[in-house]
């Protein structure tokens, strides 16, 4: 039920916000069999480090989320990710070729390793 007027609700924080964290007033919204936290219809209008005052237009289950600023990936992490993925794909490709070309070693175990390598490569 949505109201035309807002009402204030005061919520206590379980932890003190760290630097960069911004408390947000949210409510639980159910969609079908699933649900999620949403900030629509509820905004933070005041408070301090221990409490938040939320102005809301509907009744629901309310909470305070400590939203931090989006974390940007570092250049080093990106390089390690791409290099590691490239090396892994090359090694898996070599393993697949080895399993296919070495028919003298063919067994159920080798066939299973081949299928696993193909799945991991994909």
TrEMBL record:
Per the UniProt entry, what are the Gene Ontology biological process annotations, in alphabetical order?
adenylate cyclase-activating G protein-coupled receptor signaling pathway
UniProt cross-references to InterPro entries, sorted A to Z? GAIN_B (IPR057244), GAIN_dom_sf (IPR046338), GPCR_2_EMR1-like_rcpt (IPR001740), GPCR_2_secretin-like (IPR000832), GPS (IPR000203)
Write out the entry's keywords from A to Z. Disulfide bond, Glycoprotein, Membrane, Transmembrane, Transmembrane helix
Membrane association type: Multi-pass membrane protein
Bilayer-crossing regions: 75-102
In the UniProt record, does the keyword Transmembrane occur? yes
May I have one GO cellular component term? plasma membrane
Pfam families reported in the protein's UniProt record:
7tm_2, GPS
Looking at the record, the residues that make up the GAIN-B domain are 1-72
Highest taxon above the source species: Eukaryota
Subcellular location, record wording: Membrane
Any one Gene Ontology MF annotation carried by this entry is: G protein-coupled receptor activity
Q: What is its main location?
A: membrane
Q: Which PANTHER family match?
A: ADHESION G PROTEIN-COUPLED RECEPTOR E5, ADHESION G-PROTEIN COUPLED RECEPTOR
Name used for this protein in its record: AGRE1 protein
């Amino acid at each position: 039920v949505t109201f035309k007027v807002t009402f204030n609700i005061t919520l206590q924080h379980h932890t003190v916000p760290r630097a960069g964290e911004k408390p947000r007033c949210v409510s639980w919204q159910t969609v079908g069999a699933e649900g999620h936290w949403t900030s629509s219809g509820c905004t933070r209008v005041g408070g301090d480090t221990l409490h938040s005052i939320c102005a809301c237009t509907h009744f629901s289950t309310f909470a305070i989320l400590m939203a931090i600023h989006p974390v940007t990936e570092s250049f080093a992490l990106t390089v390690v990710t791409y290099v590691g993925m490239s090396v892994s794909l090359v090694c898996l490709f070599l393993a697949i070729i080895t399993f296919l070309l070495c028919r003298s070693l063919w067994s159920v175990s080798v066939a299973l390793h081949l299928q696993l390598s193909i799945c991991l490569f994909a």
